[in-house]
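Dear U.,

For the methods section draft, I wanted the exact inputs and outputs in one place so we can describe them consistently. I've listed the two proteins in the order they'll appear in the manuscript figures. Please don't edit the token lines directly; just add comments below if something needs changing.

First protein:
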Amino acid sequence: MGFWKSLFSPTEASSVPTQAVSDDYAINAIGSEQSARIVFSTDRNIDLYELEELCDAVGWSRRPLRKVKKAIQHSFLVVTMWEQQGSRRRLIGFSRATSDHAFNATIWDVVVHPSFQGKGLGKALMHQLIKKLRSEDISNVTLFADPHVVNFYKNLGFMPDPEGIKGMFWYPD
């Protein structure tokens, strides 16, 4: 539970050192070439084609870009992760959350480029997202996960509903 303790502690301790850069956060790129940095941002001005390429890289089904744009616009929070080398910036991670702006938030669309997986960057992306949600006094954070990534979220302290499954879904015919 060290991940969650770091989000609730007054010292803002983190296993990933961050350095404020306006609304961005930077860490040294793990295993990257010369002077690459990883930068986190909450700016929603994202090239939708670049986001589509990122989603393609992990094998997600394509979604209509007009709907993706609308989902981003109506999200409570968007956190992106970029590889920056000099003036070149490449989108390597994306996440977003919807919320009631008071108690609850649900995390959606967490994606990290396959070349950057297994290096702690997905954890860092989730840390930035949850830290921002906590700074807005959101305390109930939920998410939906595909079976092959459940252990990733369990390692971050997420758990199945301890009272049993309370969620239900309705899908059109």
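Second protein (the one for the lower panel):
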Amino acid sequence: MKFGVVVFPGSNCDDDTVGVIESLGHQAVKLWHKETSLENSDFIILPGGFSYGDYLRSGAIARFSPIMDNVIKHAQEGGYLMGICNGFQVLVEAHLLPGVLLRNNSQKFISKNVYLKAATNQSLITQSLDLNKAYKIPIAHAEGRYFADEKTLDELKSNDQILFYYCDENGQINDASNPNGSLFNIAGICNAGRNVIGMMPHPERAADPDLSNTDGLEILKQLVL
């Protein structure tokens, strides 16, 4: 499978993402945001970082980069698309995923390890994850507080579109394990068609034995099963 990793000015997790994909035995190419071709990529990833310096609002300017027209078309035609952290922010700005990502309730940038729990196996990225396991994954964001209106939240729940919850190391989902104030501890979702995935934590930063944490690799392996 061929992965295309879009690079915006300010992206800083593109190399990490390419490295993980290649370590899994698949091809990964970087796609510069000013280009329009997706280079026949099967799967598009919008990586983490600070696209356009997070000016105006995280992801708001990147959403209008030239390449995004074809990224949106790719998703609308059923192609797989994933946004990680800043990439998730771009996806909600492009209305490919519902809801918004607001300033953390602490009003501070947060960079630390947290724990995630997969909410369902009915998704490409969670298909064989242990629903009882707490996965240790880093976060690094200032605008990661997921918010949506009551109708949207009801739809996410009823359609099984919530993919990850923030939890503690024992897998308990509670206020104490919520790092940013996201409603219902939501850390990742997908669209109704299940081909567009967004998550705030960075699995690509926990995918190397040298870092003493490969929980993120276990998550990203799901994409190529």
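Candidate sentences for the figure legend, describing the second protein: The two ends are 11 Å apart (CA to CA). The mean pLDDT is 97.

Thanks,
Y.
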